[in-house]
Amino acid sequence: MSDEILFEKKSGLGLITLNRPKALNALNYSMIKLLHQTLKAWAVDSEVLAVLIRGAGEKAFCAGGDIRSIYESITSGGDEHAHFFRDEYALNEYIYTYPKPYIALMNGYVMGGGMGISQGAGFRVATERSKISMPEVVIGYFPDVGASHFLSKCPGSIGEYLALTGVTLDAEDALYANLVDWILPSEKISYLIEKLQNLQVNISASSQVTDILQDLGARNTPNNAALAQKRELIDGVFSLPRVEQVIARLEEAVPNGPVWLAETAELMRKRSPIAMVGALETIHRGKDLSISECFEMELALSTRWIEVGDFVEGIRALIIDKDNLPQWAYTLPELSEQKVQSLFPSLSKH
């Protein structure tokens, strides 16, 4: 299994390669455990001055967790999915406090679990090829892997917009949304890795990484982000407290508004109602929680979601049977505030 994730120490650089290019480098359980174990070892290894994590191939950094294996565990009555979520979130949380520069090279697709292993990075580096999203509502789940923290920290109501729609951002939009720190031209990737193998021991590794990125022409301010143009409308619509209010406001604005409003309304009509409600609830709660509390909430909810949510049906319809005809368990009118709170008892202490 170890050839699915590769670890190399190269002249002071700890280089990690997610090596499942045909699966868009999706994370399985053994990869999560090996990654956490190695990061802990490298944290106290004097030979490692900085860590860079990348995806094999050109298409993806990491397109999420291995959903098919999670589905098989749930439907067979196993418990691997419970261990998967627990250990994945523990890894994600650990990255936020990593003691050495941790550089996530977010080239290509970065979805779900790929965000989990990149959002805690000290250096989140995108390229013009980056396609970044939290698309959990598409399969009846809620944005997890710390999304209640990192989406709640997006400017204005952009986090709510991303959580409820699952739309994909390019690098400029992701930089504007505070989901990446740098945009590096993809042709400079090999130079970045090469230069990171020449870090000096007696100078701050973090400041050296910053200097290298700047020398290679990486930018840390967005340029013509489409999200910036949409921001006023996004804030006006997605700041509303309930999902049905968001959809109603979108539909009101459609006749005289830009095309993307109609597209967004159409997207949301197809999403799992309980997933959207769960997404909004976790983002709202995440604004007042610490990182640890966010992961604690998401872990409790992941267990609950298997019982009450649309996760299994969403995976069946979109990934297993591929009929794209999910039969969602609830309609939005059925999800009253009282019903929502009864569905999320695990969140009540927050």
Automatic annotation (TrEMBL):
MF GO annotations: 3-hydroxyisobutyryl-CoA hydrolase activity
Sequence ranges assigned to domain Enoyl-CoA hydratase/isomerase in this UniProt record: 14-344
Enzyme superclass (EC): hydrolase
Key words, A-Z: Hydrolase
SUPFAM superfamilies the UniProt entry points to: ClpP/crotonase
Domain of life where this protein originates: Bacteria
Catalytic activity, reaction form: 3-hydroxy-2-methylpropanoyl-CoA + H2O = 3-hydroxy-2-methylpropanoate + CoA + H(+)
EC id: 3.1.2.4
A Gene Ontology BP annotation from the UniProt entry: L-valine catabolic process
Protein name: 3-hydroxyisobutyryl-CoA hydrolase
